[in-house]
Amino acid sequence: MTCNTPLPKTSGLYVDGSSNPKGAGAGIVLEGPNDILIKKSLHFAFKTSNNQAEYEAILAGLSLARDVGIKTLTCKTDSKLTMGHLNDKFWIKDPTLLQYYHLVCNVIQSAFEHVHIQYIPRTENVKADILSKLASTKLKCQHISLLQQTLSAPSTSNTCLNLTQNLTDNWTTPYIQYFETGNPPPDANKSWLAKAARYTMMGDDLYKRGYGQPLLKCVTAEQA
Q1: What digits encode the pLDDT tens for the residues 93-137?
Q2: Domains of the chain with CATH codes
Q3: Which of 17, 94, 215, 218 has the least CB density, counted as fewest CB within 10 Å?
Q4: Which residues, in sequence order, are CB contacts of 104 under 8 Å at separation 6+?
């Protein structure tokens, strides 16, 4: 799961969780392939500690990286405790954090070829430092998406659901096949090709480009 030094040419994931009497949340910034930058603001509708918030941030960041097809990743956090847990350097005494540890390990082992957990000082983690700073982070990238989500319950209490995409009789099928093969459907006309230009593939998933909006993930009726 880890190594002593980061692998070259890996995607970068910056995560930060925060908890205080007014609320809790997480900031996530994913630097993906093809100059893609995705920012995510995550609000927790439940009480949580700072350490639990850090784990929630990592889980959300890994899920985001998995969705866009990333296989090798350097996850950067300013939490020495979380980094020590995931690099098997620190004992995990808290049973709740132990559950989070196993959740993260399962995601890494099932979805990635290599994930390096790296500690960085808070001063170097400004991209994901606090939720309010996400909107002010600006980097020169081709595609930038800002996602916002509220998590209603801790990840440790959620039942894992495997959503598989059914490509049979699916409205996304013609577009996915077009991007994968370069061949439009037999009945495609100029109007269909113009419409297809508004879509793009990220990993195995289809996204729609928006004007002044984040990339929108396309889902089937069942997935929705």
Answers
A1: 888 898 999 999 999 999 899 999 999 887 766 554 544 344 333
A2: 11-157 (3.30.420.10), 173-217 (no CATH)
A3: 94
A4: 55, 58, 59, 62, 86
- Compute the distance between CA of residue 33 and CA of residue 13 in angstroms, rounded to an integer: 12
Q: What distance in Å separates the CA atoms of residue 25 and residue 8, rounded to the nearest whole number?
A: 30
* CB 32, CB 11: distance < 8 Å: yes
Model pTM score: 0.60
Helices (H) and strands (E) in the chain, counts: 6, 9
Q: How many angstroms separate the CA atoms of 10 and 171, rounded?
A: 33
Tally of CB atoms within 10 A around 117: 25
Residue 207 bridge partners (DSSP): 200, 217
Rounded to whole angstroms, how far apart are CA atoms 209 and 5? 36
Whether 46 and 156 have beta carbons less than 8 Å apart is answered as no
| Confidence check: pLDDT of 224 > 70 | no
User: Tens of pLDDT along 143-163?
Assistant: 445 666 677 777 777 534 333
